[in-house]
Amino acid sequence: MADHSEVAYTTADGNDYVAHEQTYEGFLVLVKYGSITVAVILALMAYFLV
Question: For residue 49, how many other CB atoms are within 10 A of its CB?
Fold first, then answer.
């Protein structure tokens, strides 16, 4: 069996966790406001096009 005692990405040099977390938080903000925008557009379409 292979030896899986250590995960490579946790010990790799150059990992920038602060930048990773900032990018992920930015992605979450984009998804949140994008979803709200789509919901508003759909509500306006339902109101004005029916």
Answer: 6
